[in-house]
Amino acid sequence: MSPTQVALMVSTIKKSFSPKRKFIKLNESVDIILNVLLDKDLIELPPIVQHHFLNGISKNYIFEEFYNYHRTPVHLTKICRDIRNIIQDLIDQRVV
C-alpha cells in the first residue's frame, strides 16, 4: 500500500469516528473574519506547505481565492475546515 493510500485510509477512518462539528452562522464571510483575526493578532497563518497533488489540480479551482489561509491552491477559504474550526473555537472561548 502506498503512503498516499495509507493517508487516505487514515483520513477516512478519522472522519467516520469524529462527530460532525456544528458551526455558528457567521454574519461575515470567512475571508473577512480571517483578515480581522490576523489584523488583531488573534491567529497566525500556518506554514506554507507544498502539496504533492498540485500538478493534478482540478480546473474548477479559482486560484486567486485560495491563498488566504493556507496560501496554496488547495481549496477555497470559505470551505476551509481548519479556519472554520479556529473561528468556532474563538467564538466558543468568547474571544470574538
From the structure provided, what is the oligomeric state, counting identical versus distinct chains? single chain
For the report, how would you describe the main beta sheet?
none
Helix tally equals 3
- Radius of gyration over C-alpha positions, nearest whole angstrom: 15 Å
Structural class computed from helices and strand pairing? mainly alpha
Order of helices and strands: HHH
**Total individual domains:** 1
- Share of helical residues: 25-40%
SSE layout:
Layout: H1 3-17, H2 30-39, H3 81-92
Structure, described:
The mean pLDDT is 75. It contains three helices and no strands. The protein is mostly helical. Helix content is 39%, strand content 0%. The protein has one domain.
